């Protein structure tokens, strides 16, 4: 019988690998036998994550990066290939937001800080486009490759406040579909590009939006829960099954998809 979910020995690169969601993904994939190349800015967190994975019997390296810097990413690719020989899967998990790209309840769109908006688009969109182009080039040389972009609920419909982040993630979703067609038609059926759209998960980046200093839900947090049929925020483990499916051969005829993991938020109205 085929073991469609077997990812033993696959070389998986993950940007944003030291964040709340990224750490969970990296640890899970390593526990299932993948060789993990963890890309992020924070070397201390990266080294600690590698040490934990190795102590659990896994295989991982940390590579410090800047996902908006083409030269740095090319050096990253060289280091990963020197270590593991190839790149099988790329997970584009790097992203973030900035205060000036958020429209608070007491602000209007005219309070938007253009520089912050541009930085958010640069990090989330270009921070997906540039790694994709650099790492996919190695995949083409090897004759196969798989890319999973981490998008967002805010790409599905415009959410209040997160003007810059939503615009950038919507572009990531469009780019995902474009690259799915581009890679398959130009290089063959062994190349796939998909995206995961997490719903509302409490991370270090959105904690102040969703919770109060005492840990209780903010008004925005309460509103989100009221519009989520599961009546809770997601936890990192909720993403792992979908991720495993997309990085494995279980989804080998799947490309250009947008897997929503949101407890029903997008499907619910009143």
Give a description of the structure:
With 270 residues, the chain is α/β, with parallel strands linked by helices. The protein has a single domain (11-199, 242-260), classed as Rossmann fold, CATH 3.40.50.720. It has 8 helices and 7 strands, in the order E-H-E-H-E-H-E-H-E-H-E-H-H-H-E. The chain has helices spanning 20-31, 43-55, 70-84, 114-142, 163-187, 207-210, 219-226, 240-247; strands at residues 11-15, 35-40, 59-64, 89-92, 145-150, 191-198, 258-261. It has a 7-stranded parallel sheet, sandwiched between helices. Strand 5 (145-150), helix 5 and strand 6 (191-198) form a beta-alpha-beta unit. Helix 4 (114-142) runs parallel beside helix 5 (163-187). It is globular and about 55 Å long. The model has no long low-confidence stretch (mean pLDDT 96).
